[in-house]
UniProtKB/TrEMBL annotation:
Record gene name: pan2
Protein name in the entry: PAN2-PAN3 deadenylation complex catalytic subunit PAN2
Cofactor note: Binds 2 metal cations per subunit in the catalytic exonuclease domain.
GO biological process, one term: positive regulation of cytoplasmic mRNA processing body assembly
Keywords tagged on the record: Cytoplasm, Exonuclease, Hydrolase, Metal-binding, mRNA processing, Nuclease, Nucleus
PANTHER family: DEADENYLATION COMPLEX CATALYTIC SUBUNIT PAN2, PAN2-PAN3 DEADENYLATION COMPLEX CATALYTIC SUBUNIT PAN2
Stretches for region Disordered: 1169-1193
Domain notes: The linker, or PAN3 interaction domain (PID), between the WD40 repeats and the pseudo-UCH domain mediates interaction with PAN3. Contains a pseudo-UCH domain. This ubiquitin C-terminal hydrolase (UCH)-like or ubiquitin specific protease (USP)-like domain is predicted to be catalytically inactive because it lacks the active site catalytic triad characteristic of thiol proteases, with residues at the equivalent structural positions that are incompatible with catalysis, and it cannot bind ubiquitin. It functions as a structural scaffold for intra- and intermolecular interactions in the complex.
Length: 1193
């Protein structure tokens, strides 16, 4: 809004206007303030005006003053606004302070500071808060005064108005050459529209146009979508002060140019007809208009307001009547702001003296037609006592505090001797355990001598304390090391105790880890394992690529569990997965609300379809950034389609005789069970092969469109298959009690048959062979035995309905034929010639029911000869149970048993016998040196001058054995969930979920040693709950491509760089690398990791921070305010060099002596690095020469 033509006195405010209200009021009161204005106003001690309720007599239909209230005396009110959600009136003043008043009585509701210096120019209420616009800032507060967001404008912005275009989008305009569109959900700028200078001061909106008022006197009409100018009205020659739109009329007031005399207020209102886009007869008024608003009640009245407080009402197409002029008693002050309530019953005026005037045309005024209830602060209840119901038996009488009148001590005041903490010492280790113990690293293993009851340890505090000193609380060990102790490592207890094989389990604490069992299923299908490890594409979130990375880790693991965090992260970004409901909320996983059986079947269908699409997509170039293309998945035919695909012919026959045939490719089949006749009390007996055939060759009646009849008609739809897949995938669809009962009854029928057969043909029990190779841990002598089987008796076939082997064939005469087949027998030559094939059961995925937790999904997998041949060099087949990281061998009948009361079938995989022979199972690593080449940053603001690393040259490509310093920083995606037990210990329910945010690699040798060649910030699409800035150095905005100035990349891009370095055979040097690689989701062989946290560590002692090691050995003061990964990686390299010097310069005893000195110094300083300027003699050993002669190297 332009105020150039207003009274010159408005530009400056007299200092007398800002005085405080003393007890006398008269000396400090503004001389322009009429004392009669304050007759109905009571001033509180803070100088705030509180209206004294008085009876107000209003004439119905005539506007008159209802209340006036002073907010801050002498501070101009620059903005007023009626809340559109609640019965509240908002005002903002020249000093950036806002106040709200409730209802027509103008009771003060809230008051707070929005901006420290700038005035409030526009106020807009929302459902959840209130927007306040100042010159260069937009803030949103709750109605109580809490900040919701603070959005700064670009430098040089001079904002004047805002306009809500919908519930979540607004436009902001001002005296600059652009208008900003902003999304309130993300609090980010979405578009910036260019406008002509001097900008847009006022904005209105109808269903057809945006209306923009310019200080040049023009009003432009702009398109609602593109914001392009459609029409223009040149309203005034000087400037525009206000305009409003209603229906088909636009009315504007402003200033006309008077040559050398400047601007003069024009008493003619310009009125435009928006139907014909032309001006109609101007409306002459009797006041100098500054504000105008349409007040449509019975007619389209206009309210015209002057700066001196005169108000006139008239029709826009009629004549103004002098009798319709009213006067706002501003006591000589100038009106600065004006607003009309949404109900059109109330007007609000703000003047330059800090006063707000409320006018109304009805005594019982409401600001909105439908207002929600306003929340008020609860009254203080400190001095009140609750009322007690003496008739209530369980009411605690302690609700009423009883004063202490006696001088006797209370029973709770225990003497000091009884409350002094006395720590309980650990008991000594049984000598028999120490005698028989074997050590691996710093962990000792011994058999339980069983001299004490299980889980019971007697404590003899007095006897034990005599055997301990202050430093060594463990008795001497016979194995020759003073600090050695018998421990059970937590990692070993958690995983190694549960994993009885060399298979790698998958950790279950990650969100959506319900699919762990199916990941293991895909891994043990050799063609799938080879396919995804040969696949590499440029998509950021490709499930085939992520599965390849995960399967590579499972290949390298020797019994250690892995986690599918990167795969599940990519899985959460796939829109189809979310649309199918496959992304579980944390609440659903914790409360067990998810129906896991149905969920895993949907996941099974989704993953096969997704892999089929991703591995057959033609990209150019095919491989990642120029790497050689893979042998699998490079052609248009997907290996997934070749493995699981089955060509299906769907026929639709209308009753008019019209038949439509369509062909398609299906990757799996769903079981369909026969409908139970209501008259039949018992379920008929069916063979599984019979039900499977009817499910594959499905015939059903349904309503479908017939082109011949040109309407929906009952049609018979029939499905037939033209070929047999190599792997038959079946979703069991046991999702209700009815289907579970069907499985139960059919299993009982099958069990009865087996018992009758056994009674007729008794068999001799077989002797069990020795235990299998895979059942043992590394290094144990028992692992030299080969595989085993269990003896199967009829009793073991209880709850078994599905066959272990089926014969399938397709003939032209009879179509698909399926029958059960004895497991150990082969087909005859004639049967093979006819195209018959044997299918062996290789996978079953059941849902284990648990009403309390929702149950769990497990997998029974028949691990084939190819895997054992590759890993163990033996020919062997064996069934295993995969339950996250619990893996153990099972009998084949257990895989086929389904007691539906607790174990419900979900997915079955049948594989064609010897199907591997036609697939190329070779793996060619698709990751080459091109991944280390220079790449563009995702950040828009990143410049070359900001680069913190120098990429490797071709001549610097790493070789096996080269050193690479590595450090990573992380942010938190989900906080840890824990609970406190009654004994005060903490129990972790769900660990925190971390995400890598920055990865740095520095050169470990050569002329550029210590120079980074990778310093990538990882962009994330997931919400970060804690940036851990104090420990990571990552700040909000560093990972946002729109505003970050860092070298921002995708996680996949950086992951490939590290994978190439690992595959090359480099050795990584760092501090705490085990956690770094775990969060990055990489598996690195132990001989490729040099971790300084273990180099400078004595057994049974605490781990030492990198900062303390750098100060002690290198005299470096690092990590002062925050962490920097480049600095940490360089420091780790220097510490490794120092360790090599210690090892070469002295014996192991001398190195041990140095480490003991390190721990002694740490205890003295409480492991805190002293200040560099401290003069207390606490310098580092390197600077003060306290090392032995070894350290002088």
């Amino acid at each position: 809004m332009n105020f150039d033509g207003l009274d010159a006195g408005m530009g400056e405010y007299s200092p007398s206007l800002h005085g405080t209200l003393d007890a006398g009021l008269e000396p400090s009161m503004d001389p322009h303030l009429n004392p009669t204005l304050l007759q109905a106003v009571e001033l509180d001690p803070e100088g705030l005006a509180v209206p004294v309720p008085e009876p107000v007599h209003l004439m119905e239909g005539m506007f008159s003053e209802l209340h006036s209230v002073v907010s801050e005396v002498g501070i101009p009110v620059t903005a007023t606004h009626f809340d559109v959600q609640e019965e509240m009136l908002w005002m903002g003043n020249h000093r950036g302070h806002v106040t709200s008043f409730f209802g027509p009585t103008m009771g003060r509701y809230s008051s707070f500071q929005v901006h420290s210096t700038d005035d409030i120019r526009h106020i807009q209420s929302l459902e959840t808060g209130v927007l306040f616009l100042s010159k260069c800032n937009l803030k949103c507060f709750t109605r109580g005064g809490l900040v919701m967001f603070d959005y700064p404008m670009d430098e040089g912005a001079d904002m004047h108005s805002l306009l809500m275009t919908d519930n979540n989008t607004l436009l902001m305009g001002g005296l600059q050459n652009y208008v900003v569109e902003m999304d309130l959900n993300t609090v980010q700028e979405t578009q910036k529209f260019t406008v002509e200078v001097p900008g847009v001061a006022i904005m209105r909106q109808t269903s057809r146009f945006f209306f923009c008022g310019h200080t040049s006197g023009k009003v432009t009409l702009r398109d609602l979508r593109s914001f392009k100018m459609e029409h223009e009205f040149d309203a005034f020659s000087g400037s525009l002060s206000d305009f409003d739109v209603h229906g088909n009329l636009l009315a504007a007031c402003g200033f006309s140019s008077r040559g050398l005399n400047g601007l003069a207020c024009d008493r003619f209102l310009m009125v435009y007809d928006l139907r014909m886009m032309r001006a109609v007869t101007p409306l002459q008024v009797h006041v100098d208009p500054l504000f105008l608003r349409f007040i449509p009640t019975y007619t389209s009245r206009l309210a015209i307001i002057s700066q001196t407080g005169q108000c006139q009402f008239c029709e826009p197409t009629g004549l103004a009547n002098v009798a319709d002029i009213f006067h706002v008693n501003t006591v000589g002050q100038l009106l600065m702001s004006f607003d009309v309530s949404s109900s059109k019953q109330a007007l609000a005026f703000g003047d330059s003296g800090g006063c707000v005037h409320l006018w109304s045309d009805a005594p019982e005024v409401s600001f909105n037609d439908y207002s929600r209830e306003t929340d008020f602060a609860l009254p203080c209840l400190v001095d009140t006592l609750p009322q007690l119901d003496w008739n209530h038996d369980l009411l605690p009488l302690s609700l009423i505090p009883t004063p202490l009148t006696s001088t006797e001590p209370l029973l709770s005041d225990w003497p000091t001797a009884l409350v002094t903490p006395s720590p309980r010492r650990a008991p000594p280790v049984d000598p028999e355990i120490l005698r028989t113990m074997k050590t691996v690293g710093f962990i000792g293993y011994a058999a339980n001598p069983r001299t004490r009851p299980r889980n019971q340890v007697p404590y003899k505090i007095k006897d034990v304390e005599l055997e301990y000193d202050n430093y060594n609380q463990v008795p001497e060990s016979p194995i020759g090391r003073d600090e050695e102790k018998v421990t059970l490592d937590l990692f070993f207890l958690t995983f190694t105790m549960l994993v009885w094989t060399l298979f790698a389990g998958l950790e279950p604490h990650i969100p959506n880890a319900y699919c762990n069992c199916m990941i293991q299923v895909l891994y043990f299908l050799e063609p799938i394992r080879c396919l995804v490890q040969n696949h590499l594409c440029q998509k950021e979130f490709c499930l085939a690529c992520e599965l390849g990375f995960l399967f590579h880790m499972l290949d390298l693991s020797r019994g250690d569990p892995c986690q599918a965090s990167n795969f599940l992260r990519a899985f959460r970004t796939i829109p189809e997965a979310s649309a199918l409901g496959l992304i579980l909320a944390d609440s659903d996983e914790q409360t067990g609300k998810a129906r896991l059986g149905r969920l895993i079947q949907s996941w099974n269908r989704f993953i096969l379809t997704q892999l089929h699409q991703e591995t057959q997509e033609q990209e150019g170039p095919q491989a990642y950034r120029g790497a050689s293309s893979s042998s699998l998945g490079s052609s248009g035919e997907s290996a997934i389609g070749k493995l699981f695909g089955c060509e299906v012919e769907n026929s639709s026959l209308c009753r008019c005789g019209k038949e439509t045939v369509r062909s398609s490719l299906t990757l799996l089949f769903t079981m369909h069970y026969p409908e139970q006749n209501s008259q039949e009390k018992t379920v008929k007996e069916y063979d599984f092969a019979e039900i499977l055939k009817k499910s594959i060759c499905l015939e059903q009646s349904t309503q479908a469109w017939c082109e011949n009849c040109e309407k929906y008609q009952p049609t018979v739809q029939t499905r037939n298959i033209r070929c047999l897949p190599d792997v038959l995938v079946i979703n069991c669809e046991v999702n209700s009690a009815k289907e579970a009962e069907f499985w139960k009854v059919q299993a009982e029928y099958a069990f009865s048959k087996a018992m009758q057969k056994e009674a007729m043909e008794p068999t001799k029990p077989k002797e069990p062979p020795p235990l299998p190779n895979e059942w043992c841990l590394d290094g144990e002598e028992i692992c030299s035995m080969e595989g085993f089987t269990f003896d199967t008796r009829a009793e073991d076939l209880r709850h078994v309905w599905i066959p272990l082997t089926m014969k399938m064939s397709i003939s032209k005469s009879q179509g698909l034929e399926i029958s059960s087949w004895p497991e150990g027998e082969e087909l005859s030559a004639s049967e093979e010639a006819e195209g018959a094939a044997l299918y062996d059961l290789v996978v079953t995925v059941p849902h284990i029911l648990d009403a309390r937790t929702g149950g769990n999904l497990v997998a029974h997998i028949k691990v084939g000869e190819t895997y054992h041949q590759r890993k163990e060099g033996v020919t062997h087949q064996q069934w295993y149970l995969f339950n996250d990281f619990l893996i153990e061998p099972i009998d084949k009948t257990e895989a086929a048993q389904f007691d539906v009361s607790w174990k419900v079938p979900a997915i079955l995989y049948y594989a064609k016998r010897n199907y591997h022979s036609k697939y190329d199972l070779r793996i060619k690593n698709p990751i080459d040196a091109s991944v280390l080449l220079t790449e563009a940053s995702l950040a828009r603001k990143q410049r070359k001058s900001h680069a913190t690393f120098i990429p490797l040259m071709v001549s610097e490509m790493p070789q096996a054995g080269d050193l690479v310093g590595l450090d990573a920083e992380f942010v938190t995606l989900n906080q840890e969930e824990a609970e406190l037990r009654s004994d005060g210990t903490k129990s972790t329910i769900k660990p925190s979920q971390m995400s890598v945010a920055r990865i740095t690699c520095v050169r470990g040798q050569g002329p550029n040693e210590g120079v980074p060649f990778i310093d990538d910030y990882i962009s994330t699409q997931e919400q970060v709950v804690d940036y851990l800035t104090q420990y990571s150095g990552i700040k909000p905005g560093d990972l946002d491509a729109k505003i970050s100035s860092k070298h921002l990349t995708t996680l996949k891009s950086t992951y490939l760089k590290l994978r190439f370095l690992i595959d090359t055979g480099v050795r990584f040097v760092g501090h705490g690398l085990q956690k770094d690689f775990r969060v990055i989701n990489l598996l690195v062989l132990k001989d490729q990791v040099i971790d300084t946290v273990y180099l400078f560590h004595l057994p049974r002692k605490r781990m030492i921070s990198l900062r303390f090691l750098a100060w002690y050995f290198l005299d470096l003061n690092i990590q002062g305010e925050t962490h920097d990964s480049i600095e940490d990686a360089r420091t780790a390299l220097q510490l490794y060099r120092k360790y090599l010097e210690l090892s070469r310069g002295g014996s192991s005893d001398e190195v041990r002596k140095v480490l003991k000195g390190l721990y002694e110094k740490g205890r003295q300083l409480d492991w805190k690095v002293p200040d560099s300027d401290a003069g207390d003699g606490q310098g580092s050993p390197k600077s003060s020469a306290v090392f032995p002669s070894v350290m002088g190297l």
